[in-house]
Amino acid sequence: MSYSVEIKKLDLAFGAVKVLQELDLNIHEGEFLVLLGSSGCGKSTLLNCIAGLLEVTDGQIHIKGQNVTWAEPSERGIGMVFQSYALYPQMTVRGNLSFGLKNAKLPKAEIEERVARAAGILQIEALLDRKPGALSGGQRQRVAIGRALVRDVDVFLFDEPLSNLDAKLRVDLRVELKRLHNQLQNTMIYVTHDQVEAMTLADRIAVMKGGAIMQLGSPDEIYNRPRNLYVADFIGSPSMNFLEGQFADGSFRIDDMAMPMTGYEYVEGQPSNRAAVIGIRPEHVVTGELVGNAPLQYTVDVDLVEPMGSDTLIYAKLGQHGFRIRMDGQAIVKAGEALAIGIDPARASLFDKASENRI
Amino acid sequence: MADLNANAGVVPQGPKPKKRLSRGNIFLYGTLIVVSLYYLLPLYVMMVTSLKGMPEIRMGNVFGPPLEITYQPWVKAWSEACTGINCDGLSRGFWNSVWILVPSLVLSISIASVNGYALANWKFKGSETFFTVLIIGAFIPYQTMLYPLVIMLRESGDGITWLVSWMNPILEALGMEPFGRIRLMGSLSGLVIVHSIFGMPILTLLFRNYFASVPEELFKAARVDGAGFWTIYFKIMLPMALPIFVVAIILQVTGIWNDFLFGVIYTKPNIYPMTVQLNNIVNSVQGVKEYNVNMAATLLTGLVPLVIYFASGKLFVRGIAAGAVKG
Ligand SMILES: Nc1ncnc2c1ncn2[C@@H]1O[C@H](COP(=O)(O)OP(=O)(O)O)[C@@H](O)[C@H]1O
Ligand SMILES: [Mg+2]
């Protein structure tokens, strides 16, 4: 398996502040990799290092097998798309698209051909002679993508490209981006703090925190088998329910309840007894006639009901503990009622309380 | 009820419009008018006096318009008035000033804009310290540097003479004129250097702040597009920097044109700038005081900055505002 981008023990510090530490990351050829994390965790910093816009403190970056740690951004075979579009305001769209090609001293005919092709792919032919000021946000971002597209790069870098767009446009462009990736089959590294974007676009997601990668895996893995408490809590909305208790002899015990973890896939076989945290996604709790089939069945007291149209969010108490449940939008539940619920331990996540890692 | 709803859109909203002649406005406009009169009156007096003949001026009536308009004082001020040994009026000083102004302007602004761009976008080790030192330079009273600069100009003139002296035998062999002694002190080029140096801190500050306000991502995008230091400067930054260039030009034109002290110190009589010559005309002790000629000469000298202000007023305000908001 050849790697498109390899990051080896990357360190980056701004003065005394270490932003990235010993970061390793290998990205496959043609992969859509999303760097996901809350604001300030170092996603943009990592992307800028890959682009060559920041000098790394230590470590190496390889692109297509070449060590590019000290190469100029333009020599790395990367194109970059920024959150603020960063179009050159005094140039037309055509000027924006051809700027990089002119710097590379390509022949005029080839420049025109490439601009035309990129404009065709992105459907911005009609805008070529306009200035960026006369474009909408979505059109601007399309031009910004075009600027990377014309240069025929190996790796596309996106730094929150959709964050400045309004919600509807964001969804449209997200779909377009996915289509573009299917069409081009380039490696794409995409930074976002939006988990929906991450889940929908990514082949693999790298969840970052404090300059380190917490988990690297497919959206399915990240969602269903989060490797630690941070990832479990970060992914999913509404977020996972966490209950603290004891793990003993294949059961999770909390207060006087025992939840036998039948069907749960342990990371390394059944672990020894210890303090543990169980995580249960609100949408994995079943209600109504499905409860009868569930391995574990409880009754909760409903505190508050939030109807959200497509589904209904229920804040309840499982024993003494707050517990969120996501139900169908049609569900009719009232605050103060008792509600029967079913839980499947195979879909839950168990974490060691001390190390916060999945067990 | 239906009617009411239909009209709902045109019900007046927001605070009542203020009356035009409120007490506050009367006070405001009154003050403005008084202040502008205070500034315009001397200008008016200068204007009318410069158009009067001497006999009319002797009659008194400073504020009266000229009974008989004469342009003779203007002609005399421009081309006939005597300053020391020369009697060719202000025209000589005007051209001296132009020859001082234009190179100083080009030199100082082009260097300072590149400085500012480099300090804002191409941070190097110690660039912040460098910038701080430069800013401190802007606040050192320049009187303290007058004499050191005299020495520096003299010495570096000799230094350049020595540096180019090796070419003299070659030039002589080729039948060309060899370099003589090169002087920076007491020459126009010396004064150009002085003006450029003194403009540097404030102009660099101006440009640095402006370029620092340009979104960083634009700079990054250009780097990814393979643009280097000069390509980014000329293709990306310069086209965006017109307003701040106008501000810099106005600052420099007025500063250099109105300069008197450096002109007196670093040049000599036949290349004095216009301000120094104006002083020599107005303060000349021989003969009668020709008020009309003096007024005309003063107005002529003030014309250049005035023209610059009027020509670029709007751009100037825009540039200042841009610097203030984003800087
Ligand atoms: N030029 C800089 N100088 C100092 N600290 C910086 C600089 N750029 C970013 N940082 C710090 O590095 C951390 C990571 O920033 P960034 O990579 O932009 O985060 P993200 O893109 O994930 O929101 C932040 O804590 C930020 O304050
Ligand atoms: Mg960021």
From TrEMBL, chain A:
Family recorded in the similarity comment: Belongs to the ABC transporter superfamily.
Name of the protein in its database record: Carbohydrate ABC transporter ATP-binding protein (CUT1 family)
GO BP term, example: carbohydrate transport
Keyword Transmembrane (UniProt): no
NCBIfam families given in the database record: PRK11650.1
MF terms (GO), sorted A to Z: ABC-type transporter activity; ATP binding; ATP hydrolysis activity
Pfam families according to UniProt: ABC_tran, OB_MalK
InterPro entries: AAA+_ATPase, ABC_transporter-like_ATP-bd, ABC_transporter-like_CS, ABC_transpr_MalK-like, ABC_transpr_MalK/UgpC-like, Mo/tungstate-bd_C_term_dom, NA-bd_OB-fold, OB_MalK-like
Key words of the record: ATP-binding, Nucleotide-binding, Transport
UniProtKB/TrEMBL annotation, chain B:
Protein name as catalogued: Carbohydrate ABC transporter membrane protein 2 (CUT1 family)
A GO cellular component annotation in the UniProt record: plasma membrane
Keywords of the record: Membrane, Transmembrane, Transmembrane helix, Transport
InterPro entries given in the database record: MetI-like, MetI-like_sf
Top-level taxonomic group: Bacteria
Family: Belongs to the binding-protein-dependent transport system permease family.
GO terms (BP aspect): transmembrane transport
Gene3D superfamilies, sorted: MetI-like
Listed transmembrane segments: 26-45, 98-118, 130-153, 188-207, 227-251
Membrane topology qualifier: Multi-pass membrane protein
Species for this entry: Yoonia sediminilitoris
Compartment list: Cell membrane
Residue intervals of the ABC transmembrane type-1 domain: 94-312
Protein's UniProt keywords contain Zinc-finger: no
